[in-house]
């Protein structure tokens, strides 16, 4: 496989959609990666390659950028959020990994370290790519696999099944309850602002920062692009005409991806967050979604609903004397106190 460095992401645009399908997650799409790069790529060096097979067909895209130049040049995936991987069909993953290993080597302008975070564990990148395992992250998943909503509920415990049905029945009995999928481009900006507000008041000072500053602007643009493709899942739950909870996710590659949510704490006694999540899962069942994938965290409400989990990995590849020495240092500090580890890891992130 021959790897050709490109000067701009647009140089690979004609191949992107086809190859992103092989990656199988929304964070590989053009809509996500190009938007992220337009907001956060300023002043950074793109280190992205397209890979061709022996017949000169483009079979992989390696979307990287130079995250650090000193003390060693470090490559990282463009658009990191939750999952990351090369863009290619499953049968080309070993070749894409071989190309990546070749690019992390000696030579003018090459990166000596590759900080590969969020690699989907079920895709075999540990075997294909190698390197040093730095961290693993496990998130819950519901394997819907064609089950109806009632069939899904029947697979849960009697207690949980009764709780889910009671909460929605009680809320609908005592209040005017409605759910709305945001599918109107003219109203999308208002709906995103509702999401941001509900997320902010839900978390207060503990807010994750996922919608802070320029990130909110990026997500507005991502939502617009995802809506155009039919992938956006932004649900607003209203109680007595007032927005009480919001769900933000994506429907891509046969799976539902739960990204973030928010709710008004003044409605907590009515379990509005749980009722909205139940509605979203029921909709996924009705529309034949294969998997409902929770992201970022193993909160108890997720694990109660899930019947499986999936792992992502962070791996570090190094080459040359400098790269290998940096790899040893980074690996060694994984068990160090948080402040020490944070200082060392800053140069690869």
> Mean pLDDT, as a whole number?
91
* Inertia-based shape: elongated
Task: Assess the beta-strand content as a share of residues.
Answer: 25-35%
Largest β sheet strand count, sense and barrel closure: 11 strands, mixed
Topology overview:
Layout: E1 2-5, H1 13-23, H2 30-40, E2 45-46, E3 49-52, E4 58-62, E5 64-68, E6 74-77, E7 87-88, H3 93-103, E8 113-120, H4 125-129, E9 132-143, H5 149-154, H6 158-174, E10 177-181, H7 188-203, H8 214-229, E11 232-239, E12 242-252, E13 255-263, H9 272-286, E14 291-294, H10 300-305, E15 308-318, H11 320-332, H12 338-345
Parallel strand pairs: 6-8, 13-14
Antiparallel strand pairs: 1-3, 2-5, 3-4, 4-7, 5-6, 8-15, 9-14, 9-15, 10-11, 11-12, 12-13
């Amino acid at each position: 496989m021959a790897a050709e460095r490109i000067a701009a992401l647009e140089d690979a645009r004609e191949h992107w959609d086809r190859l992103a399908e092989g990656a199988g997650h929304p964070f590989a799409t053009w809509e996500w990666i190009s938007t992220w790069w337009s907001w956060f790529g300023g002043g950074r060096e793109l280190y992205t390659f397209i890979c061709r097979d022996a017949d000169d067909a483009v079979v992989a895209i390696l979307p990287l950028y130079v995250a650090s130049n000193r003390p060693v040049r470090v490559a990282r995936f463009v658009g990191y959020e939750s999952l990351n991987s090369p863009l290619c069909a499953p049968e080309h993953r070993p070749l894409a990994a071989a190309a990546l290993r070749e690019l992390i080597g000696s030579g003018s302008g090459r990166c000596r370290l590759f900080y590969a975070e969020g690699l989907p564990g079920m895709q075999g990148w540990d075997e294909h790519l190698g390197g040093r395992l730095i961290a693993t992250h496990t998130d819950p998943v519901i394997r819907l696999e064609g089950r109806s909503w009632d069939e899904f509920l029947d697979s849960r415990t009697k207690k949980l099944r009764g709780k889910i049905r009671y909460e929605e029945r009680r809320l609908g009995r005592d209040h005017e309850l409605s759910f709305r999928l945001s599918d109107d481009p003219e109203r999308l900006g208002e709906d995103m602002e509702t999401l941001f507000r509900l997320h902010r008041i839900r978390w207060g000072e503990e807010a994750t920062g996922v919608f802070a500053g320029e990130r909110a602007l990026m997500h507005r643009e991502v939502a617009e692009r995802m809506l155009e493709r039919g992938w956006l899942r932004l649900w607003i739950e209203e109680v007595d005409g007032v927005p009480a909870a919001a769900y933000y996710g994506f429907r891509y590659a046969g799976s539902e991806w739960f990204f973030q949510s928010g709710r008004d704490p003044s409605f907590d006694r009515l379990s509005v967050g749980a009722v909205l999540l139940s509605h979203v899962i029921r909709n996924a069942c009705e529309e034949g979604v294969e998997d409902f994938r929770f992201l970022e965290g193993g909160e108890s409400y997720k694990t109660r609903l899930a019947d499986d989990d999936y792992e992502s990995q962070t791996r570090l590849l190094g080459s040359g004397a400098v790269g290998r020495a940096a790899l040893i240092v980074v690996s060694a500090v994984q068990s160090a106190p948080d402040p020490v580890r944070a200082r060392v890891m800053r140069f690869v992130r």
